[in-house]
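Entry 14. Structure prediction run on the chain below.
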Amino acid sequence: MKKIFSIIIALVVIFSVACAQTKNKDNENKSELNWYTNLEEAKEISTEKKIPILVDFTGSDWCGWCVKLRDEVFSKEDFIQYAKENLVLVELDFPRKTKQSNETKAYNNNLAQKYGIRGFPTILLLNSDGGVIAKTGFQHGGAKNYVTHLNELLSIKSKSEL
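Output returned:
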């Protein structure tokens, strides 16, 4: 009986370490991406690179679907590789627990109002002038499916219109 208990404990420890390593790898991948917090800066980069802007209106510390989108899509290799080559990323956060400066709150609120954001997560695909190409949110199916979804939305506009 003692032997079985020791084996179970060992398996739990091994499983915990494996899960922690996977989570750390996902967090490292997300940190590989450059998420801007200023749309004007992103518009300049978008103009220079001739690629669209993806704006994530998120409630990072309270919105379950926002966390799911970050964990199942934004932190995965399929999305990371796609985004590095094809998107300028902007995160506009509306946290409840995390402190933000009044300036950041006002900036994010003004953009949410300008673009008519009503819920979280809302994802906007914008051209380099800040014009809306498409609006979406969480999509089931993981990162690969999300990349396909974004490509479908962007196929409406040709690269010359970005």
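DSSP finds six helices and five strands in the chain.
Filed with the rest of this week's runs.
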